[in-house]
Amino acid sequence: MRQDPFGNQGAPRRRGLGGGGLRIWVLVAFAAYAAYYYFSNRTVDPYTGEQVMIDKNLSAADENALGLQAYQEILSQERPVDPNSEVARQIRSIAERLIARVDEVEADLAAEKGLQAQNFAANFEWQVNVIQSDQANAFALPGGKMAVYTGLVPVARNQDGMAVVMGHEIAHALMRHGAQRMARGKLEQIGQMAGAASGMDAGTLQTVMSAYGVTSALPYARAHESQADEVGLMLAAAACFDPAEAVPLWERMGQMSGGQSPPEFASTHPSAESRIQHLQALQPKALAFRQKYCGQAGTAAANG
Q: Please, which residues bridge with residue 51 across strands?
């Protein structure tokens, strides 16, 4: 029988994998899976030339079906106006002009990055409704399902302002921002599961996720908004709308908030001031798109 220096007698103890070691292996396993998911689902966005994450198991048909389901649910709860009304006809006309330039604008923006267009929207079945509401808002879902709220009409003021907003929303669908957010959401779930499995208490996990939101998730959402601003502005310009109307439009949007908007770092959207600066910087490029596709005759028609 062995006696240790401290006077304890008995057989030597075998050290097993304690709680701390087990937690480390759990974290390693989750990290390995997260890394595999991240790198195996990377693709290049033809609009920006950037590497983005989209789950390869999410097909275009699946994405379109999700968009249609969401659209039908919204229309069942909202009040679309008469499709033959003046406002509905005007909105559809603007949408048709924007949609007609989708492939050309994608090809141009992809070529700037040395890429080929992917024409993801080739199978979109476009549908546009106008919803009776005081909201100054619009949206476009995967598959080409769009809606404009009547509250946006007085804020847009004219077809050019409306085209800027609608181009922005169409850009979200073209760039698959919804699919990108879904993939990122899966990574966030993996992180939360890893934290819980490692024994992290709820308070600490909440603090970690809050810090992640401010430093990563919110900037990621704001980047999507800025990307949609740029692509949407090029789309509006190529459809012979006046891109300069984007600036006064966002000035009016900023005035609507009455200074009640959260600070930019705590928001999913850039501030009105940041947006205006970005759109001002994009004006030369947008005017070049308008000149290319509309020429002098198109420019004069749009101004008229």
A: 44
Q: What CA–CA distance (Å, rounded) separates 303 from 297?
A: 10
Residue type, 70: A
How many CA within 13 A on the CB side of residue 74?
22
- Rounded Cα–Cα distance for residues 284 and 113 (Å): 18
Q: pLDDT digit string (tens) for 119-162?
A: 999 999 999 999 999 999 999 999 999 999 999 999 999 999 99
> Which strands form 127-131's sheet, in the order they lie side by side?
127-131, 145-149, 138-141
> SS3 helix, strand, coil % of the chain, rounded to 5?
65, 10, 25
Relative to beta strand 51-53, strand 42-44 is antiparallel
Q: Number of H helices and number of E strands within the chain?
A: 11, 5
What span, in angstroms and rounded, lies between the C-alpha atoms of 268 and 290?
30
Structural contact between residues 224 and 172, judged by C-beta atoms closer than 8 angstroms:
yes
In DSSP terms, 44 is beta-bridged to 51
> pTM of this prediction?
0.84
